[in-house]
Design goal:
heterodimer; A: about 160 residues; alpha+beta; B: about 400 residues; alpha/beta; Aspartate Aminotransferase, domain 2; globular
C-alpha cells in the first residue's frame, strides 16, 4: 500500500521542503563540489608515511599521507570512507597546505580547528588566508558534525608530525 | 491508519508537534505514565528498600518488589526472582560473561556469536574468549540479512559452551528464529544468551517459551528510564554463578574473613537498588500491556510495510535486512551510494526528522555490508504515516541536494 493512500494528495516533494537556511549554509556549493570531485584523493607514489584514523562514533575512516621536502609540504594525499564534510575538509585543506612550510601548515590546521569552535574567532587576515576553507565556519552550528572536521585535522596534524 | 498511541501520551512529543521521532530503536520516548510513576515514587514512597524497619522503607521495598513481578510477567518469567535488575543490556551481557563465562569456559572451548550481534554482546564475548583462551566463532549472514543457519549449524560442536545472538537485530531489523537456534545450541550442550533489547519493546516476549538460558533487555528502549535493564536467567544457572559485584544487599552473613551471600535476585544486585527506575520500567510495561503487544506488533508491521514500499522507489537506495515486514521489526536501515548517512541525518534533522546514522554499535556487520555507516529509521507505538511522509520528503531533499554527485 503506497504511503499516499492515507494521506492528503501528494505535493511535489522538493518544493514542499521547508526553507532550510542552516542546511544550505552547511552544504554550500563549495563543499559539495569538493565532495563530488575531491582533490588529492588517492595514494602518493613512493613510500610516503601515512596515518589512518577512525571516528569511533560513526566508523568513518580517513588516511593521510604527507611528503615533506626541504621543510615544506611537498605533496599530500588522502583516502576516505566518510561523509561529505570530512571529504570536503580533506580536499580543501590538503589543497591549501601543499607547498607551505611545515610550520605554516601546522598553523593553518589550527586555524581550521578554531573556525569550527565558538569563542575562538579568526581575525580578518587569518580568515581571508583560509580561502575555500572558510565555508567550514558553518559547521559551528552543527555540533554533531564537528567531529567530521576534526577527524581530518587530527589526521593531517599527525601525518605531518609523524612523517 | 493513525498512531496506536496518542502523541499526547508522550510529553516530549506533545510539546514538539513538528518533531518526527524515528529513532525509537536508539531510545524510546517516555510515556507520561512512566514519568508520573517516577515522580510518585520519589514524592510518596522514597526510602532505601530492604533497610529500614519503618513503614516508608517497607513501602519502597514493596514497590520495588512489585515492579520486579510486573516486569517478570511482561517477559513471561514465572520466577520473578530470576529477573535481575542491572543498568541495561550491556551490563547484563557482562554479568553473563564474568559471572557464568569465566567459571565455565576455558581453553579448548568455543563461543559462538553472529555477525549481527550488537557490540554489547559481540565485544563482551570476544573479550571473554580472549580471557579464557576459548575460540571465538562468528556465524555469518545471508545476503538478505538473516543468520545463515547452515553457517551456524557447521560451527556448533561439542566444544561450544555459549551461543549469543540478538532476538531482533538492531541494525537490520531481522527477527531471528530463536527457538530453532536454541534447539541447535542445546543439542550440543551450549548455554544460550539472547539479546532482547530490540524485541521487548515491539514483540510479545515469553522467555520461557523461547527456551533461552539468559535473556537481556534495556528499560529505556521500552519507554522506561535510562539506567535500568534486566537479565533474566534460569534459576539453575544463576544459582551456580558467583556474585560479580560485592557490597550491601547482596550479603547474608559477613564474617571477619569470609562472607556468605544472599539469595536471588539480591546476590546480583549489590548496593542500594535502583528502585525508582524499576518502578518506572514497570509502568512502561503496564503501558504496553494496556496497548496490547499484539496490537503494537500489528501497528509496526503496517508502518514498516509502508516505509519499505516508499523507500524502495528512491533512486540508488540500498535497504538492508529482509524485505518482508512480517520477518522484521520496525527498524529499517538504508544507505545511498551518493549521500553519506551523516549527511542524510543532518538534512533530515532540518526537517524535524530524527534518524540514527552510524555503525549502530555493529561494526562487524557494517564491514560485511560493505558500508561505513547506514541511516536507520525506526517506528514505535506513537509513529504515524505522517512521520514517514516527513521522512520521504526529507530524503528527497537530501537526494536533490547531492544530485549529480559523481563521488569517487
Amino acid at each position: 500500500m503506497p504511503l499516499s493512500a492515507d494521506l492528503p494528495p501528494p505535493v511535489p516533494l522538493v518544493a514542499s521542503a521547508p526553507p532550510d537556511p542552516r542546511v544550505a549554509s552547511l552544504y554550500q556549493e563549495i563543499i559539495l563540489s569538493h565532495y563530488r570531485a575531491p582533490k588529492h584523493k588517492g595514494a602518493l607514489a613512493g613510500a610516503a608515511a601515512g596515518v589512518e584514523y577512525q571516528n569511533p562514533l560513526c566508523g568513518d575512516t580517513i588516511s593521510v599521507q604527507v611528503l615533506v621536502a626541504d621543510g615544506h609540504i611537498a605533496d599530500a594525499a588522502f583516502g576516505a570512507r566518510a561523509c561529505s564534510i570530512t571529504q570536503a575538509t580533506a580536499s580543501m585543506l590538503l589543497s591549501r597546505l601543499i607547498g607551505l612550510p611545515v610550520a605554516e601548515a601546522t598553523l593553518v590546521v589550527a586555524q581550521v580547528e578554531r573556525l569550527i569552535e565558538p569563542g575562538t574567532p579568526l581575525d580578518e587576515a587569518e580568515a581571508a588566508s583560509l580561502g575555500d576553507l572558510r565555508a567550514l565556519a558553518s559547521v559551528i552550528r552543527f555540533p554533531a558534525r564537528k567531529a567530521c572536521v576534526r577527524l581530518v585535522t587530527v589526521a593531517i596534524s599527525d601525518a605531518i608530525t609523524s612523517r | 491508519m493513525t498512531s496506536l498511541a496518542p502523541r499526547s501520551d508522550f510529553p516530549l512529543l506533545a510539546d514538539a508537534p513538528a518533531l518526527h521521532y524515528l529513532d525509537s530503536a536508539a531510545t524510546a520516548q517516555k510515556p507520561r505514565v512512566v514519568l508520573d510513576a517516577l515522580q510518585q515514587f520519589y514524592e510518596r514512597d522514597n526510602a532505601n528498600p530492604h533497610r529500614g524497619a519503618y513503614e516508608l522503607s517497607a513501602r519502597a521495598t514493596e514497590r520495588y518488589h512489585d515492579a520486579r513481578a510486573t516486569i517478570a510477567r511482561f517477559i513471561g518469567a514465572t520466577d520473578a526472582d530470576c529477573t535481575l535488575f542491572l543498568r541495561g543490556t550491556t551490563e547484563a551481557m557482562n554479568l553473563v560473561a564474568y559471572g557464568w563465562g569465566d567459571a565455565h569456559i576455558g581453553a579448548g572451548d568455543a563461543i559462538v556469536v553472529t555477525a549481527m550481534d550488537h557490540h554489547a554482546s559481540f565485544v563482551t564475548f570476544q573479550q571473554l574468549a580472549r580471557r579464557t583462551g576459548a575460540e571465538f566463532r562468528i556465524a555469518e549472514l545471508t545476503d538478505d540479512g538473516r543468520i545463515d543457519m547452515e553457517s551456524l549449524r557447521l560451527m556448533l560442536d561439542s566444544r561450544v559452551k555459549l551461543v549469543a545472538f540478538p532476538h531482533v537485530s538492531n541494525a537490520l531489523g531481522t527477527i531471528n528464529p530463536v527457538t530453532e537456534i536454541v534447539a541447535m545450541a542445546h543439542a550440543v550442550g551450549a548455554v544460550v544468551v539472547c539479546d532482547g533489547a530490540q524485541a521487548v519493546p515491539h514483540l510479545s516476549v515469553d522467555v520461557e517459551a523461547l527456551g533461552v538460558d539468559f535473556y537481556a533487555f534495556s528499560g529505556h528502549k521500552v519507554g522506561g528510564p535510562m539506567g535500568i535493564g534486566v537479565l533474566w536467567g534460569r534459576r539453575a544457572l544463576l544459582e551456580t554463578m558467583s556474585p560479580w559485584q560485592f557490597g550491601g544487599d547482596m550479603i547474608e552473613i559477613v564474617g571477619d574473613q569470609t562472607t556468605t551471600f544472599n539469595t536471588l535476585p539480591h546476590r546480583f544486585e549489590a548496593g542500594t537498588p535502583n528502585a525508582a527506575d524499576a518502578v518506572g520500567l514497570a509502568a512502561a510495561c503496564d503501558y504496553l500491556t494496556t496497548l496490547g503487544m499484539d496490537r503494537v506488533r500489528a501497528h509496526e508491521v503496517e508502518l514498516t510495510a509502508l516505509m519499505l514500499d516508499e523507500l524502495q522507489v528512491l533512486d540508488g537506495i540500498r535497504i538492508f535486512g529482509p524485505m518482508n515486514p512480517q520477518e522484521r521489526s520496525g527498524v529499517v536501515s538504508f544507505a545511498f551510494e551518493d549521500v553519506h548517512a551523516h549527511d542524510l541525518a543532518t538534512i533530515l534533522d532540518e526537517h524535524g526528522v530524527c534518524v540514527r546514522a552510524g555503525h549502530h554499535c555493529a561494526q562487524p556487520l557494517m564491514r560485511r555490508l560493505g558500508v561505513p555507516a547506514t541511516a536507520r529509521a525506526s517506528v514505535w507505538v506513537h509513529s504515524t504515516p505522517d512521520d514517514l511522509r516527513a521522512l520521504m520528503t526529507a530524503l528527497q531533499h537530501a537526494k536533490s541536494l547531492f544530485a549529480d554527485a559523481a563521488v569517487r
